Structure formats: structure tokens, C-alpha cells
Amino acid sequence: MGDRIEFPKNFEGYMTMAKDAEETGKKDEALTLYEEAYNLQPDFEANTKIVNLLMAEGKFQEALGICEEMLQGYFEEDELFETYIKLLLGNQEFIKSRKMIKKNRTRIANEDELLRLVSTSEEQYSMFNPDKITAYKAEGRDIKVQPFYQQMGTLKLLEKLPKADYIDVVKELLINDELPLLLRQSLLESVVAICAAEEYEIITIFGEQCTVDISELTAPGEQATYLQAKELLSKQLEEYEEVFQTQMMEELRVNFSVMYPFADAWITDVSLWVKQLLASYLEVEFTEEEQTSEAFDKNKELLELIQKELVKIMQ
């Protein structure tokens, strides 16, 4: 037997040794060598090799962490995207996996196959983990007694529920007026994002309970009024510092989240609404016609109600 060839301890050397080890079935050694290569040079091939070896060992949490370091690459091919979905499922991220599939449905060819994979994973999880599901649902129902930031964490935890169980809890929370409106709206956005096509009861910022058909809704960021307001606000802020621009664009996003999904109906004069939003921070002049308009009063009421909602979560 000849002497073992010594490769230089650089990225290429470690990758060559790792591939040799993997081909001869030395998975642990291969993983260590791929990690050495990756530490020297963050490389997508090394990333996928590490992820696949960790997945084979059932280390889904660790594998997902590595995957997310170079996540964009996993959206380039259907096979890689499927790997990402499997990682989410291995971490019981059922709702997130559905959101990601829907978000990328226009560029993947295997949407139906992936959704079946999610459904199968949910069924298996439900079969073997009924106690966990019961505990998650109970925590979700007790969310009203938690501080706001803990409530946010609980909503994230609920996304580990299978779709049917998730929807059961969400339906209850959407009409729980003790839960901050901003969080209730985030739940509404979530069921829209997973394409849960059915009717839901919600409570609006005016305290009115009404029915919305999820199949007819778009995401908040896709609403015509939001897109128009975003463009107008961006132009108004061109001469201001980037920090202030970022702050105002985030405030705009939050405002529309609170109004969701009724902004298109409630805001009849988008330009005036943007001016009134800015008036809380800048000196803005209004014409007499603007100040006496019905839209001005409606916008003022909306902005005041939104501010009250935001104050609630700060307390």
C-alpha cells in the first residue's frame, strides 16, 4: 500500500480530503474536514455538504443553522429548495415551510410534491406527539396573560403546530380583544401566507367584529394603497437622513399592518394620509381644503387609533 497523499491544509486541500473520506464511507471524518474547509472559506458547496451530512445524522437544528448562513443559494434549484423545506420540517417548522412554499410557488416546479411532504410530516407529528400539540395549543390560548414580547414568542411557537391545529388556535385568538391588535393582525397575515382559504372572524381597529375571506386577501405589502403610500413617502423623505427614512418606512409598514386588510377601503386620499403621518414628526402645512375634507378627519381618527394600539404594546 502506498503512502497516503498529504494535501495542503487550505480550502481546496480540506475539500479534497473531505470528498475522499465521504466516498470511502468515513462520514464523521468527512464532516470534520468539510467544516475545516468552510471555516477557512464560506463556500456554498461546503455548506451543502455539511448540511446533508448533518441531516443524515438527524441533526436538523444544527443543519438548519448552517443552511441559513447561505440561504439564498437554496432558492436557486428545486432540489436545494426541497432540502431547505426538509430542514424546516425536521425542526417542526410546519407553518414556516408552508409560507416558504407559497412565497416561492412561481419559481418552483414541485409545489404540490412539497405540500404533500409537509402534510405527511404534520400527520406523523400529530400521531406521535399529541401531548406536545395539546401543550402548544394551551399556551397559545393563555397568551393574553403574557407580556407583549413573550406573546410574540408564543405566536412563533404556535407555528410548530400542524396546519389544522394552528388554524384552530388562530381562529380563537383573532376574536380575542385582550390580545394586542398588532399581534392579531400578524396572525391574520400568517393564515393568508399559508393559503388557508376560508372565512375568519376578526375585530377591526374600530372594535367591530366582521368576517373576512382569506382567499380574497393579499399580503399587507401588496395592497395598492400601501404601495402608493410607500412611493409617496419615499419621495417626501429623499432629503432626510437615512436613519429617519428607515424609521418612517417601518412606521408606515406597522400602520398598514394594524389596518390590514381594510386600508384600501379606509384610506380614500393616500397623499393626504402620508402628509398627516409625517405631521407627527415634521412641520407640514395643510390647505384649508385639506383640513376641512372628510378624508382629513377619517385619516386623523385612524392615525390616533393606530397610535393608541402602539402605545398599548409599549406599556
From TrEMBL:
Keywords: TPR repeat. SUPFAM superfamilies: TPR-like. TPR repeats lie at residues 11-44. This is Uncharacterized protein. The lineage of its organism: Bacteria, Bacillati, Bacillota, Bacilli, Lactobacillales.
